[in-house]
Amino acid sequence: MAVRLFEGKDHASSYLQYRVAPHEMVSVIMSYIEKRKPKRSELAVDVGCGPGQVTVLLAPYFNKVVGTDVSQAMIDRALAKSNPPNTSYRQSPAEELPFTAGEVDLVTAMTAAHWFDRPRFLQEADRVLRPGGCLALLSYTMDMNLEYGDVSDALNDICQEVRYKS
C-alpha cells in the first residue's frame, strides 16, 4: 500500500503553508544578491530548468536568463510556452555548461541538483561564475553534503545556516 500523506485538511494546510514555492525562493535569492550587488546583473543560468518554471521568474532581475537541461524534451516544453524576450534555453548537461569562464552572475538549480554529478557540477559552476557570483541550490532534502576542494565545510555550513534560518 502506498503511503498516503496530506489527505486531511490540516495536513494539506500545513503542506501548503510550509512548502517553498519557486517565486518565494527567487525572492530570497534576489534579496541576497541585491544586498551585495545593487545594480542589475547581466546573466543568470537555471541549470536543470525542466519546463522553465524558475527560469522565467529570474527574467525581471537579469539582462539575460538561460535555462539549461540535459533533456531536449524539457527544453521543447520550455520553448513551447510564452517566455520573456530576455529568456532562452539550451540543451546541456549540468556538468558541461555552454558558457565561458567567469561569464555568469547567478547559477541556480531548483530541485535538480540531486540528479547531477555534484563534484563535477560544483566545479563547473565555479568555472562559469564571475568573482562574487552566486550559486543557489534548492533541494527536496538537506541530506546531501557538498564537496568542493577546501571549501566543502564552508559550503555545508552555509546550507545548514539557510536550512535553520528558514
TrEMBL record:
Residues 45-136 form the Methyltransferase type domain. GO terms for molecular function: S-adenosylmethionine-dependent methyltransferase activity. It comes from the Eukaryota. InterPro entries: Diverse_substrate_MTase (IPR051052), Methyltransf_11 (IPR013216), SAM-dependent_MTases_sf (IPR029063). CDD domains: AdoMet_MTases (cd02440). PANTHER family: METHYLTRANSF_11 DOMAIN-CONTAINING PROTEIN, NOVEL PROTEIN-RELATED. This is Si:ch211-93g23.2. It comes from Cyprinodon variegatus.
